[in-house]
From TrEMBL:
Topology in membrane: Multi-pass membrane protein
Domain SecDF P1 head subdomain: 303-431
Subcellular localization(s) per the UniProt record: Cell membrane
Family note: Belongs to the SecD/SecF family. SecD subfamily.
Keyword list, A-Z: Cell membrane, Membrane, Protein transport, Translocation, Transmembrane, Transmembrane helix, Transport
Signal peptide: none
Biological role stated in the UniProt entry: Part of the Sec protein translocase complex. Interacts with the SecYEG preprotein conducting channel. SecDF uses the proton motive force (PMF) to complete protein translocation after the ATP-dependent function of SecA.
Domain Protein translocase subunit SecDF P1: 227-286
Transmembrane segments: 452-471, 478-497, 503-525, 546-571, 577-605
Designated name of the protein: Protein translocase subunit SecD
Assembly: Forms a complex with SecF. Part of the essential Sec protein translocation apparatus which comprises SecA, SecYEG and auxiliary proteins SecDF-YajC and YidC.
Segments forming domain Protein export membrane protein SecD/SecF C-terminal: 433-594
Residue span, SecD export protein N-terminal TM domain: 2-103
Length: 615
């Protein structure tokens, strides 16, 4: 019999819509302002931490709705943002550097619903408020750092092979190595060419110099590596800040976009993200006279550095270890209640540091803090020139052979030790970065965007609803039911996908899918009208209307879906948000407009002897 849907298809439609409605329902409960307290590396929040936080809030009479220990984090919910901000300031001061205290908006979803994975849609920066940075990687500094590494590698390689040389130094385009005789030059050329196939070597027999320059492929690799590693390191730092749903992604050849929803302390965010700090360990030069160095006669193998109090120290240029080998760092106090940073190295770093310290027991070693700071000067390509600032954190005597784990002191305050530990464990940036654009969205503006976007969706839905009801009468009611189910499914699917984030352009995508969903029904209903005008029976007209319009609807939606996928692949934040909602809306509208309405039409009019239709 024409236009009779099997029971399984009807149940399938009901099941899909019901599941969509279930997972869309968490968005009705809203969000509570909250403070999230989580332990930093090596520290985990526990029941004692929870009791401490609770007693401090009670003592300061800061009211809260609930407090709970969840997955090693303490979550405190509040009824208003005023108490939330008070609690954040109080806990940030009292908990020291062992915990990260972050503002958060926590879903007020019932426990039974959260237990089955029900969560509200995640909102982007433009809807929840926060800060966005566009940061530019200084590629020239990346190349300079690569040259510095090559200088050290060449010296080590030549010493290991017992090839004598006069000097190894940087040149404009690469590295120049000068030798004592032609035999050493030939031996070094043969050896270094085998070990460095991505470099171009040129011999000058008159000056006994071997020049190594980077190929274009090598330069490209350095720039790509600098960008990718900086993105990875910035992601680590963002995670240390405790930001929920951050976005860190590349833009073009040297830019990085960072979006931090909910962040209000932009000064702290910029300090952590923009820092290029690392440390180096060097031996103190005890053979040379410090007085001569202060008068300008610094030995070629040494460097005069100062600590934060202006005290000078003469240190060797040779680096024993750099911060690149640090895999973990945490702040604490030593036996004299002074702040210290506990450092753990990777296996190569531990081996290297062990070999460097075994022959220097009883001698002083300096810990050098290095930071690149932007200047007002620009290079020929318009990039900001960074200056290297070096400061001695501490000078300590090596008491024993050091390995993978050790500690350093002299960081100043506990907060400075905490920030240094954060930067060291997150990693030093491969190349300095600078903020070229900063955009802040306040919480009130985010809430206003949500309200305006919601009004646009409701307004668009209402206008389409009225039009379909007037123009297609009873079949318009069916189309409107499908339209409502489509919105429910979009919200439900967006809530179920972990990586999906609703943005203001994403709301525009939902409004667009409302029009696209009803467009499919218009094609079907107009085809049914044509069949009726040609004298077909009601049942034949319904059957032919759906069958004939299907291919047209499918073609139109597939081409739009391809465009949405391309937008998602090549676009950034807001464009991706639009592409996600558009893609989901295309799939759900196909289901509701074709399968959903066909099921309802078959249930109401299918298999009956009818002379006319309310269409």
């Amino acid at each position: 019999m024409l236009n009779k849907s099997p029971l399984w298809k009807t149940l399938l439609v009901i099941f899909v819509v019901a599941i969509g409605a279930l997972y869309a329902s968490p968005n009705l409960y809203g969000e509570d302002p909250a403070v999230q307290i989580s332990g930093l590396r090596g520290v985990e929040a526990d029941a004692t931490t929870l009791d401490t936080i609770k007693s401090q809030l009670d003592q300061q009479q800061v009211g809260f709705s609930s407090i709970a220990l969840e997955q090693g984090q303490v979550l405190v919910r509040f009824k208003n943002t005023e108490n939330q901000l008070k609690a954040r300031d109080l806990l940030d001061d009292s908990l020291g550097g062992k915990y990260s205290v972050a503002l958060n908006l926590t879903p007020a979803t019932p426990e039974w619903l959260a237990g089955i994975g029900g969560t509200p849609m995640k909102r982007g920066l433009d809807l929840s408020g926060g800060v966005s940075f566009t940061m530019e990687v200084n590629m020239n500094e990346a190349i300079v750092k690569a040259q510095d590494g090559m200088v050290g590698d060449f010296r080590s390689d030549l010493r290991n092979e017992k090839i004598r040389y006069r000097s190894v130094k940087k040149s404009t385009n690469g590295i120049d190595i000068q030798f004592r005789n032609a035999e050493d030059l030939a031996q070094a050329t043969s050896y270094l060419k085998r070990r460095n196939r991505d470099l171009l070597f040129t011999e000058n027999e008159e000056t006994l110099t071997l020049s190594a320059t980077m190929s274009e492929q090598k330069l490209k690799e350095i720039r790509e590596y600098a960008l990718q590693q900086n993105i990875t390191i910035i992601r680590n730092r963002v995670n240390e800040l405790g930001v929920a749903e951050p976005l860190v992604q590349r833009q073009g050849q040297k830019n990085i976009i960072i979006e931090l929803p909910g962040v209000q302390d932009t000064a702290k965010a910029k300090e952590i993200l923009n820092a290029t700090a690392t440390i180096e360990f060097r031996m103190v030069d005890q053979e040379s006279d410090l007085g001569n160095a202060l008068n300008g006669r610094v030995p070629a193998s040494s460097q005069l550095l100062y600590d934060r109090d202006g005290r000078p120290t003469l240190v060797k240029k040779r680096i024993m270890l750099t911060g690149d080998h640090i895999v973990d760092a945490g702040s604490s106090f030593d036996e004299y209640s002074r702040p210290q940073v506990n450092i753990t190295l990777d296996s190569p770093g531990g081996s290297k540091f062990s070999n460097a310290t075994k022959n220097n027991i009883g001698k002083p070693m300096a810990t050098v803090f290095i930071e690149y700071k932007p200047t007002e000067r620009k290079d020929s390509e318009g990039n900001t020139i960074f200056e290297k600032h070096e400061e001695i954190i501490s000078v300590a005597t090596i008491q024993a052979r050091l390995g993978k784990s050790f500690r350093i002191t002299g960081a100043g305050s506990q907060q400075e030790a905490h920030n240094l530990a954060l930067l060291l464990r997150a990693g030093a940036l491969i190349a300095p970065i600078q903020i070229v654009e900063e955009r802040t969205v306040g919480p009130s503006l985010g809430a206003e965007n949500v309200e305006l976007g919601f009004q646009a969706i409701v307004g668009g839905f209402a206008l389409v609803f009225i039009f379909m009801l007037i123009y297609y009468r009873a079949f318009g009611v069916v189309a409107n039911l499908a339209l409502g189910a489509n919105l429910i499914l979009i919200v439900g699917v967006m809530s179920m996908i972990p990586g999906a984030t609703l943005t203001l352009p994403g709301m525009a995508g939902i409004v667009l899918t409302v029009g696209m969903a009803v467009d499919a029904n218009v094609l079907i209903f107009e085809r049914i009208r044509e069949e009726l005008r040609e004298g077909k029976s009601v049942q034949q007209a319904i059957h032919q209307g759906y069958d004939a319009a299907f291919s047209t609807i499918l073609d139109a939606n597939i081409t739009t879906l391809i465009a949405a996928i391309i937008l998602y692949a090549v676009g950034t934040g807001p464009i991706k948000g639009f592409a996600i909602t558009l893609s989901i809306g295309i799939v759900t509208s196909m289901f509701t407009a074709i399968v959903g309405t066909r099921t309802v039409v078959n249930a109401v009019w299918g298999g009956k002897r009818l002379d006319k239709l309310s269409i």
